[in-house]
Amino acid sequence: MTYKKPTTEAEKQQAREAAQAITAELMERITNRVDVLAEQLKQGASEELLTFMRFTARFHTYSMNNQLLIWMQAPAAQYVAGFHDWKRQGRSVKKGAKAVRVLAPVSVPDHDAAPGPDGKHPHKIVGFKYVSVFADFDTEGEPLPGTEFMTVKGGDEHTRALLAQLSSAAPVAVEWQDEEGKAAHGWTDGGKIVLNRPRCEAEPAHALRVFFHEWAHVELHFAQAGKRAEDCPDRKTRELEADAAAYVLSSFHGIEAAAQVSDYITNWGGDAEKLRASLGRISRAVTRIMGHLTTHPNGRRAAPLSTAA
Ligand SMILES: [Zn+2]
Prior knowledge:
This protein is of the alpha+beta class.
């Protein structure tokens, strides 16, 4: 197929319409996929949802919609980037590579909003357009950046060290308390994370999971210390979101822990809207937490696209 740059007004219009049709189709694929995931849960099948959730940690700088699009088109991808971004990293896109289409927001200056200190109006998103990126396996050249970053290798001592390292990167204090009488393994008021020593200390992998769970609550369900976020869902949903975020983050760090799948099934099974909202929130928690944990933000990831899609 040869590409000819549109020149006449009619050709340009045709190109615009074709692009709009592709964008609409991508949006529809996202919707359909969430419907399928919700329907699978209803049938008691959670494997695909869990696979998708684990996949999202690799692409934590992307919006949930783009995570779904990358997953559907290139489930084996470790990285994706645009043609020129790969070039800048010393790699070139292979001949015959298949583009992965994702959505990027289209924004314009918002003249209704007050200008910022620089005298410019803030931008508002008015729509989306598709852009093409390529998966790492469709490129060649300089070696890919490593993926060893903060992954647990070895036993409990490494996990303890990792937990200490991650705790220092958290935006709130992380404390250990001795509450033998409490059944809870950890808790938070949005201002600090507490790990209950008698329930957590013996099993560092579990402690790490609890730590991520509480951190997800901090990110998603509190506006500030002691104050709930306004858009806070019901308690059960809050717990599922924190559990799912902890599942994603733990598995990203090399810790396999079972997710509360039976609760996912009862809460989200068949309810695509609810699942969509929660997936968006889980993705947000993972993005924020990974943002804190990545010392050089996405140094190992090629030019992330906007996360607003
Ligand atoms: Zn919780």
